[in-house]
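To assess whether ligand presence alters the predicted conformation, the chain was also submitted together with zinc ion. Input:
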Amino acid sequence: MDPFSQGFLGAAAAQSVAHKKEQVWVFLLGFFAGALADVDVAIKIPGDEIGSFLLHRHFTHGLFFIPIGAAVAALLYWLMVRRKYPFKRIFLFAFVGYATHGVLDAATSYGTVLLWPLSNERIAWDFLPIIHAAVTFPLAIGCIYSLWKKKLWPVRVGLVWFLVFAGFSFYQSQRVVAAHDEVVAAREHTPENRRLMPRLGTVADWRVVYRHNGQIYADRAQTPLFKAASIEEGGAVPVINGVEDIVPTPTERQRYDFERYNWFADGFLAKTGNGMIGDMRYTSDPKGFEPLWGLKLEEGNFVRVRAAFKSN
Ligand SMILES: [Zn+2]
């Protein structure tokens, strides 16, 4: 999720297990540890733009990396505060803060290699949007009110609110599944890898994609609070099965780049009218096929492109 939500969740978790007199420094440490995993966006592999991009939400987000990430956060903080607090206590709160990061990201649909190195699967529980005010603000208010008043209850209320909201968001995702089941049954499809993409800032408006018989299908689902869930049916585009669909005789590098980007896009790559190989999980229209990003072949190499890209 966004760095503020990550930071405030990390801070809230750490503050809620700290003493009330420790609220200020634990807030700063928890926020830092909670957001730290996203420094992976700054890691660059020279000469490998796609590989560098795929490092985001990679090893720094894994469950097994939590002790290492927490140790780094604790050490940096310990040095920054001039060794004012015991390292053991700093490590404890850094651990609690850092531990929230990968799990929160896994609740979104982008994909997080939570079990790396045991598994390279991009885990995505598909029920939280990557930005939502109802996640960020109650956590922020809880954290700040607790450190201001030096009391524990506000941050705990913020944390409980967050858990209730996450539960509600999961419930909404299950409403989408139930409504969409009827649509695919009417189409007599057996969906392969159905994925839900909550739209930014809402848990009432969703893109649903799945593969069936060599096609990617997309529909829009709406789950208003006091009305029945509804589906607006979209269309379908042919899925790209392999790099040979783009380049008949690919080089090793082209195959490697295509395959790892296809892993990122969870097998939802399709060609667009302007020559882009689009990641059809994310589009501007929830039931359409105008991707926000994808790949393009440029001078024999696959390069990443974003929606602003227009072909001549
Ligand atoms: Zn992250």
